[in-house]
Amino acid sequence: MATFSYTALDAEGKERSGTIDAVNIDVAITGLQRRGLIISNIDSAEKPASILERRFSIFDRIKNSDIVILSRQITTLFEAQVSALRAFRLLAAEARTPKLAEKLNVIGNDIQSGSSISNALSRHPDIFSEFYINMVRAGEEAGKLDETFSFLAESLDRNYEITQKARNALIYPAFITTTFIIVMVLMMTLVIPKLATMLADTGQNIPVYTKIIIGMSVFISKYIILILAMLVAAAFFLVRYAKTPSGQVAVSQARLDVPFVGQIYQKLFLSRISDNLSTMLKSGIQILRGIEITADVVGDKVYAEVLSTVAKDVKGGQQVSEAMRRHPEIPGIVVAMLKIGEETGNMSSILETMARFYRREVNNAVNTLVDLIEPFMIVFLAVGVGILLSAVLIPIYNIASGI
């Protein structure tokens, strides 16, 4: 429940003000109008969250895995003939986090006020995607909500699993690379300067490669603060740019252009597109609407623009396969399979087959990447540290040997 403050005129024209508790502002307005009041102003009376509260709310966020579990629980309750209102009340009482419990209670209140499940869910776009909401709406129209939530749980579970696998495969090299950079910077700023001073005191000739390492060390030691400031500033502006529409496209394109990793992302997004479209077609959503929804939830700006363009072409009368053929981001095998689906009228099964194929491809590519990363990183670290130590230790060895 939320609290709203209002200013209104009664039947005698006198101004009244006060507060009212309601599920949302529409219900609050309806309640005041039933009292015979003419509303002149109404607004939320709740105080905005403080900075500290907003920071702690990060730890109370609702994860994708929570929505998967929630969908499975709803399926079970609907199959047991539990009413929608009672189902959401039960789930709110057993929710994993207070935030999820609060959202489920609000959804329950909306349903109690006469709202459909899809409309109640649509008030929470931060949790339920447009794909999710449209699937539920299609389930309501077909009278198959239990099957719809089962489809959603399976689809979300597949997407979550494959996304996490691809993401986790990139954590290890990122961690190793960061550790390597930190170690190299510490050696350049703390170890090399002392060894350079010792070599200079001997008066011996210093090899060129050692002079290069010492020069890099002197530069880093002298300008370390400036370098860090520039890196922080660059990271700040890159993050800001990545949030702009053009920046999102640039980041997505750069991610797809990275050798090998870009192929994993491409297969990941193709799997997600095929899976979402197949699931929506099974639920009775038209292919055009399915493409429009998938464009909003695919998770990549490049593929989102491709799908938006395809949707416009399909709306203009083109077949899906012909519309996708114009985009190099869509492989020829996908276009050919879609063409077969259009000719046989079995698009849903074709998309499901492609989704399974690309899930296997992503799994194989990620497994290959994980197998290759460890030896590659070991060789990379060994070469880097070996070059650095050789540039310093060889002159020391020469001095000790009297060369």
Give the integer mean of the pLDDT values. Answer: 81
Approximately how much beta-strand content do the residues carry? 5-15%
Largest sheet, order of strands side by side? Answer: 2-1-3
Helix content: over 70%
Count of separate structural domains: 3
Q: What is the CA-atom radius of gyration, in angstroms?
A: 30 Å
User: How many DSSP helices?
Assistant: 16
| Number of strand segments | 3
Q: Which runs of at least 5 residues are low in confidence (pLDDT < 50)? A: 49-58
Please provide a written account of the structure:
With 403 residues, this protein is mainly alpha-helical. It has three domains: 2-47, Roll (Ubiquitin-like (UB roll)), CATH 3.10.20; 55-158, Up-down Bundle (Receptor-associated Protein), CATH 1.20.81; 170-403, Type II secretion system (T2SS), domain F (Receptor-associated Protein, Up-down Bundle), CATH 1.20.81.30. The protein has 16 helices and three strands. The chain has helices spanning 25-34, 51-56, 64-79, 84-93, 98-112, 117-122, 130-142, 145-202, 208-242, 245-257, 261-282, 287-297, 301-315, 320-325, 332-344, 347-400; strands spanning 2-9, 15-22, 38-44. A three-stranded antiparallel beta sheet has the order 2-1-3. Residues 49-58 have low confidence and may be disordered.
